[in-house]
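Bumping with the actual sequence this time:
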Amino acid sequence: RIRKWDAAAITNGFLAGLVAITCPCYWVSPTGACILGAIAGVIVILGVDLLEFVRIDDPIGAWPVHGLCGVWGTLSLGLFACGDYQATGSQPGGIPTIVSGQGLAGVFYHGGWTLFWAQCIGSFTICACTFAIAMLVFFVLNLFGRLRISHEGELEGLDLHEHGISAYPEYVISGLAAPRGMPRDTVGYLPSVKADSELVGAKH
C-alpha cells in the first residue's frame, strides 16, 4: 500500500502467522496452515489500521498480533481442521490417533459447524474472563493512584520518563539524521527545531 517494504509490518506479519497457527497446528493440513497464516498477515495490518482509526495507542501492534490473530487462529480450527486427527486426550496415553476422516473436521472439510461454534464459545469465554479480570486489576490500581503517570511523564513519553532513553530513536524525525546531501527541510528539520525550542522554553 505504501509502495515500500516495511520491515516492522513484515515482522508483524510473520508473528501473526505464528500466533494464528498456535491453536490449530495439530489438526490442519499444510495447505490449511498456509491459508490461515496468509489471512492472519492481512488481519494484523487491518487491526493496526483499526487501532489508529479509533485513536488507541499500540506502537508495536501487540493487540493486532496476539489478540486479533489469536482469536482468528482459534476460530480457524473450526474451519480448517482436516479430519485426520482425533482430539487430544482421546486415547489413554493422551496422544491423538491418526484416523483419516474420523478426527476433528472443520467447515471446509465437511465437518459441519459444530466445531466452529465450539471455538466461538471458547474464544468468547476467554476474552470475557480476561476483560473482566483486567478491569478489576486496573480498578484496584486506579484506587491506589498507580494507573496514570504524571503530566510531565505524559509529555516526555514513558520511555524517556521511566528509562531515560528513547525506545524507538529511528522514528524521531530530525535533521540530524538526514543522509548526506538530503535537504534538511525534507525531513521536517525546521518544524522539529521550532517545536523543540518551544518545548524547552515551556519547561524552563
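The C-alpha cells above came from a reply further down the thread. Confidence is low (pLDDT under 50) at residues 189-197.
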